[in-house]
Amino acid sequence: MKINFTKMHGLGNDFIVIDCRKKKIAGLSRLIKKLSHRHFGIGFDQALILLPSRKADFRMDIYNADGGKVEMCGNGIRCLAKYIWDRKLSRKNVLAIETPAGIIKPRKVNSLVQVDMGEPILEAKDIPVNLSGKVIKYPLKIDGREVSSHIPHPTSHIPFFEITCVSMGNPHCVIFVDNVDKLPVLRYGPLIENNPIFPKRTNVEFIQVINNKRLKMRVWERGSGETLACGTGACAAAVAANLNNLADRKVTIHLAGGDLRVEWSENDNHVYMTGPAVKVFEGVINL
User: Fold this and answer.
1) φ, ψ for residue 167 (rounded to 5)?
2) Tens digit of each residue's pLDDT (9 = 90 or more) over 55-93
3) pLDDT higher than 70, residue 196
4) What confidence score (pLDDT) does residue 62 get?
5) Which of 42, 59, 145, 216 is 20 to 30 Å from 17 at the Cα level?
6) Are 286 and 5 in contact (CB under 8 A)?
7) Are 94 and 24 in contact (CB under 8 A)?
8) How far is residue 209's CA from residue 59's CA, in Å, rounded to a whole number?
9) Alpha helices in 87-160 (DSSP H)
10) What percent of the chain has pLDDT over 70?
11) Which residue in 79, 165, 173, 230 is the catalytic one?
């Protein structure tokens, strides 16, 4: 069996796109986990599956590198939109793409893609987080230790964080730090991702505020590990920064793979994300 795929990336957050509108692939989750390996497979953060939709122009299913299916991917939907336009599968400048998080609408903005990500979800039970109300500056406990945003005493090896939780169709835990480059993301990302407070696990964003219009971000993605960029994470970070009175509603977010522009609109309460989408190469998988 041969499967055609396209390798793409959004700010280094990389994907394969597989068109399954006319064919089904058995054991897709296991196959994706195998192919995602960066030494023994193709290597990617997520797989984007293009499918037909009865209520939108197209449907996108998203699988993480571990084979788990997830609700939404901001960088991914920009890449899927570019894939659709490049292959002339639609002549529309604004697409309606069904996702597990709802219908998302990417549109062309010159050489970039802007995505209406919808309204942020702030109620804990809907994110989901095992708390009540909004989760802003909540002191999380990891391994029985309380975590807040204060800098530890120099002799202490225990960092202190506070969390702000937002869903952009998928769960995010945003933490503000003084120096994001020095933070041991590989150590604390998985501990927070898998904390029992998050019933569906969570993505984790570590944010350094440069000023009220610029944020610097590192991200630990649920099921994929640290990645160069995360679109939904950038949107969640922008919302969290505004909720904590640290930034304006329109910000540029600097990620390891490049910059995203994010605006949390006062007009409709929607979050708009603008950034690039790049095709890398096409290939064929022989099974």
Assistant:
1) -110, 135
2) 999 999 999 999 999 999 999 999 999 999 999 999 999
3) yes
4) 97
5) 216
6) no
7) no
8) 35
9) none
10) 94
11) 230
| pLDDT surpasses 70 at 28 | yes
Phi-psi region of 133 (alpha: psi -120 to 50; beta: other; left: phi over 0): left
- Among 236, 268, 231, smallest CA distance to 168 is for 236
Rounded to 10 degrees, the C-alpha dihedral 40/41/43/49 comes to -160
* Residue 20 is among the residues annotated as catalytic for this protein: no
Question: What is the per-residue pLDDT across 175-189, written as a single tens digit (0 to 9) for each?
Answer: 999 999 999 999 999
Domains of the chain are 2-117+276-286 (3.10.310.10), 124-269 (3.10.310.10)
Query: What token pair was written down for 102?
Result: 């709802």
Per the listing, tokens 């002799």 go with: 155
Residues 20, 73, 79, 173: which is the catalytic one? 73
C-alpha to C-alpha distances, 259 to 169, 170, 194, 234, 239, nearest whole angstrom: 21, 21, 28, 10, 16
